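cron nightly-structures :: item 1 of 1
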Amino acid sequence: MLLGQPQPFIVSNTFLADTLRKKFTNEPVDDQQLKSIAGRSFNLSDLKGKVVLIDFWATWCGPCVAEMPFLEKLYEKYKEKSLEILAVSIDEDSRKVRPFATENDLNFPVVHSVALAKHFNAPTIPTSLFIDKHGNLRYRKVGFAEGDEREIEVVIMELLK
């Protein structure tokens, strides 16, 4: 069941899942080396076998900031089911990212990389990329507004199947 959703939403979630699956792509993702603000270096290929949500954001972006508590709840709910979230900041001043992550208790990896946003053609923020367990880009979501939580969680649930 979706985060905070009552039982009657199950039928409409099935319809939404069917609709979203029709929009899925299957694009291979180039391996990228990343370094979290905590100093951990890793490659995207290290995450194969997990569903990965890459969220491009910035500390000055209102919708991005509004999305973070939901992403944290989503991560807590699905991390044991092989979900990984990478929050990739495109802030010009990288010194703003660590305090934001600390203040908001972000428990998923936070990366600062304008180059990665360019590589994935994410000129608008927030942009979320959903990568399946095989390392293929399956869905792209641009923007975040109230009500988008359902779409994001349904995509995650579909990719975790």
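cron nightly-structures :: done
The radius of gyration is 15 Å.
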